[in-house]
Amino acid sequence: EVQHITGNVHVPAGKTLTIEPGTVIQFNYRMKLTVDGTLDATGTSSEQIFFTSYRDNSPLGGTDNAAAGDWRALEFNVGSDASHLENVVVRYGGNGSTGEIVIASDISIVDSTVSDSNSFLVAGVRINSSNPTLTNLSFQNNYTAASMDLASSPTIHGVSASSNTINGILIDGGSLTNDVTWNTADLVYVVNGTITVPQTRTLT
Question: Residue 153 CA to chain centroid, in angstroms?
Fold first, then answer.
């Protein structure tokens, strides 16, 4: 099944958008999906869910004429914590965004691939003031695999990064406003500016 997105889509608070295994979501130029409620995109290993460009017909057996930055992003706002992505492929996004997937809540992403985001400074996954769980992800052909601010403590297990300009997590500079933990051995942490740990805060 193909869903061709020609305008921005919004999932309001209190509502759930469920995407069935094997579904292909094709976004027109610079379009995005914003979630204030819940997105349940649970595919299987044999029926992955694709979030991709309107020019990418390869999941359907056709041609792939897409390029990085053809569409914008999946954006998870505060309150979308129940959202879950599993066995999904997200690619060719990032236009006008800080990431192909932008997370500001404690969502979970499992067994998925994030690739081909728009070029300079655009992450595969951008994390803002939140603690998502990322498990068994593959990051490919992004500027940086992931990036995050100093208020975030994501849980990251079993991820891999290849052919990104930065095969790691790009960390914003600044001063800690809360206690945070950096705890993954799978990705290198790349400090992108001076970080200050005030007397009342702890960086673990």
Answer: 15
